[in-house]
Design a protein that fits this description.
This protein is mainly α. Helices cover 79% and strands 0% of the residues. It is built from 30 helices and no strands. Helix 1 (3-15) packs across helix 3 (37-49), helix 8 (121-130) packs antiparallel against helix 9 and helix 14 (239-252) runs parallel beside helix 16 (277-291).
Length: 544
């Protein structure tokens, strides 16, 4: 095949989003006779999208140099900007800074204004955004977007609008920001943008919708991203981030096995060439392990997530709380909230309230709950209202106002049910049971505890199920913590020192059945060892 034919095939495959075919055709043509600068850019894009990031950076460097050879300074500056962005995504700040400086120097050489000057504002604006200066970022992103419109450069207009929305959200104006995200997604879904800007925007918009508690938008755009990735099956970049968002939504909707699978897939794709998926893949796995009572594993996952440079909060503070150190958890979450932007702090508020209450600081919990309630009044999305109602109810219980708590909690429970978030709905129902008990309605309290306990067991939420079980036995009706009679027999024999084989012989069961009973006992009671089961049996009169 001639060089020209290979270039033509590469261009056709690139237009049709067949990245592997584009890579093969372009690479062959490059070996035979070399590629023009624009085709080198296409080859670099195909390499980056298929996970060959190092090769893609080398090819993009060649494209930059070729543009300089032919005297196209604007395109050379643009390549330098993209090289800086890619190195930034890889966490190589020194290389990124060098390429941004080179791009800016070349842009300064241009005789008249050009869209490339707007592109080079984007990394500067991102620097301000990540450094906690959303107002400064907003100004630069707005200028970049205006330059994109002026020069009819759609990628730049969209990236500028995305950044404007992110800065606006961090400044606390959620409704305005969400409208901007919807607008920029129109450009993506209509196919107006190049592949890398499209992927950046998809993932950023979904993450920011979740940061703003807009579950419905996050779900819609995650489904769209899923379709976009499925139409490009050989794409690695952005596919890992898609799996991270899938894991988060599966977790919320109670499909925890599927969430674990999606988180593991995000980690795999992160290692294959989508480094932006590193944090989400491990953070979501850590949250799932925390919910199911695997505290050591959760801590290890959060440590892996921290390698990305992002702080794994509130998950890490909640692990510390689950281990019984409320004061340390309080210090951790307060520090994280103190350095966070407005949007991120709002995301931390439910955990802040939970930890403050566990630490006994009801006054601080009330202040955080009031901030969340204020946000819910400004932006009355169902998920914000549900979280605000649940935190308000929890604080009212601590303040000795069970009647007021009941009203807030029942509204929150209905919203969680409508949203399809079973874990929070069940936790909310436990709080409703506590309010009923404080009001002297023990039968209703037990109904709520028992219903929540069953729901939490079905999810596999061992610690929360144990919490519900401990409340069920408060009137003496259920010292067994929800165990069946057979499970109560098994724990009695465990407490007597018998192993699984001896228990199986005594109860005429198989060892496999005994192991299954033990697994159910650990799950129901929130225990993790035979020693803990023995202690529980003696403490609750089951060892006789």
């Amino acid at each position: 095949m001639s060089t020209e034919a290979g270039i033509d095939e590469g261009r056709a495959a690139f237009r049709e989003h067949r990245w592997t075919d584009a890579f093969r055709s372009y690479s062959g043509a490059d070996r035979r006779g070399g590629l023009p600068a624009a085709d080198l850019e296409n080859l670099a894009t195909a390499e980056i999208l298929t996970g060959n990031t190092a090769a893609g950076l080398d090819t993009l460097t060649r494209a930059h140099e070729e543009y300089l050879v032919v005297g196209d300074v604007a395109s050379a500056a643009l390549c330098a900007g993209w090289l800086g962005m890619q190195h930034m995504f890889q966490g190589d700040s020194a290389q990124a800074g060098g390429w941004f400086a080179r791009g800016q120097r070349l842009a300064d050489e241009l005789a008249k204004p050009n869209a490339v000057q707007g592109f080079l504002m984007v990394p500067a604006a991102l620097g301000k955004l990540y450094a906690g200066d959303p107002a400064g970022a907003l100004e630069l992103f707005t200028q970049a977007s205006e330059l994109g419109r002026r020069f009819q450069e759609k990628d730049l207009s969209a990236l500028g609008l995305l950044g404007t929305g992110q800065a606006t959200l961090m400044l606390g104006q959620a409704d305005e920001a969400l409208s901007m995200f919807d607008e920029v997604m129109v450009a993506v879904t209509s196919g107006e943008l190049s592949p890398i800007p499209s992927g950046i925007i998809y993932c950023a918009v979904i993450g920011n919708c979740q940061l703003a508690f807009d579950l419905e938008r996050a779900l819609q755009w995650t489904a769209a991203l899923d379709r976009w990735c499925e139409a490009r099956p050989d794409m690695v970049s952005f596919s890992g981030q898609c799996q991270h968002h899938r894991a988060e939504l599966f977790k919320l909707h109670g499909a925890w096995a599927e969430a674990f699978e999606a988180a593991a897939r995000a980690q795999e794709l992160s290692a294959k060439g989508d480094p932006q998926a590193l944090y989400g893949g491990y953070y979501e796995q850590g949250e799932l392990q925390l919910l199911t009572g695997q505290l050591d594993a959760a801590e290890a996952s959060f440590a892996q997530a921290a390698r990305s440079g992002y702080e794994p909060q509130p998950g890490l503070a909640l692990v510390v709380l689950a281990r019984g150190d409320a004061r340390r958890a309080q210090s951790m979450i307060r520090r994280a909230a103190g350095v966070a932007d407005v949007a991120t702090r709002r995301h931390l508020l439910p955990a802040l309230v939970e930890i403050e209450l566990a630490a006994g600081d009801t006054e601080a919990a009330r202040l955080w709950a009031a901030e969340l309630d204020s946000f819910a009044r400004e932006t009355p999305m169902p998920m914000v209202r549900a979280a605000a109602g649940q935190t308000d109810g929890a604080v009212r219980l601590a303040e000795g106002d069970p009647a007021g708590a009941t009203a807030s909690l029942r509204q929150a429970w209905r919203l969680w049910q409508q949203l399809g978030v079973p874990y929070e709905a069940a936790r909310c129902r436990v709080l409703i049971g506590r309010a009923c008990r404080d009001l002297g309605d023990e039968p209703s309290a037990l109904l709520d505890f028992e219903a929540a306990h069953a729901e939490l067991l079905e999810l596999g939420a061992a610690p929360a199920a144990a919490w519900a079980a401990s409340l069920m036995k408060a009137d003496g009706r259920s010292a067994t913590g929800g165990l069946t009679p057979r499970e109560a027999e098994v724990i009695r024999l465990v407490a007597s020192g018998k192993g699984n084989r001896a228990i199986a012989a005594e109860l005429y069961l198989s060892e496999k059945t005994v192991a299954r009973h033990l697994s159910n006992i650990f799950l129901k009671l929130g225990l993790s060892s035979r020693a803990a089961a023995t202690s529980y049996a003696y403490e609750h009169g089951l060892a006789g």
